[in-house]
Amino acid sequence: MKTKTSITLSPDLLVELDLLAGPGTSRSAFIERVLRTYLHERQREAADARDLQLLNRHAEPLNAEAADVREYQAPWPDE
Questions:
Q1: Which pLDDT score, from 0 to 100, does residue 23 have?
Q2: Per-residue pLDDT of the chain (79 residues; tens, 9 = 90+)
Q3: Considering only CA atoms, which of 27, 25, 22 is closest in space to residue 5?
Q4: Are 44 and 53 in contact (CB under 8 A)?
Q5: What whole-number distance in Å separates Cα of residue 62 and Cα of residue 55?
Q6: In a 10 Å sphere around its CB, with 0-12 CB exposed, 13-18 middle and 19+ buried, how is residue 31 labelled?
Q7: Of 31, 48, 57, 75, which is the most buried if we count CB atoms within 10 A?
Q8: Residue 44 is inside which H or E element, if any?
């Protein structure tokens, strides 16, 4: 179930919204899609920041392990 709401937009923004939404797409549907995309992107950015923080916190042992693994790799053939 959706809730009806009202927002106020600048005339230039409304013109841009109508152009981007195109014919056959309501303003409400377009704004909802854009807002969902924005919120999803914010969640993804927050998850990426948490992942980066975790990797940075454990960077030294992870790098040491990677260096150790490289010692056992076969060399690349000459090209």
A1: 95
A2: 999 999 999 999 999 999 999 999 999 999 999 999 999 999 999 999 999 999 999 999 999 999 999 888 888 887 5
A3: 27
A4: no
A5: 8
A6: middle
A7: 31
A8: helix 27-57
For residue 26, what are its two tokens?
A: 């309501």
Q: In this predicted structure, what is the pLDDT of residue 79? A: 58
Q: 60 CB contacts (<8 Å, ≥6 apart)?
A: none
Contact 35, 22 (CB under 8 A): no
Query: How much is the pLDDT for 32?
Result: 97
Three-class DSSP category at 2: coil
Q: How many CA atoms lie less than 13 Å away from 64 in the CB half-sphere?
A: 3
CA-CA distances (angstroms) from residue 25 to 9, 20, 31, 51, 64? 18, 9, 10, 37, 54
Residue 66 C-beta-side C-alpha neighbours within 13 Å = 6
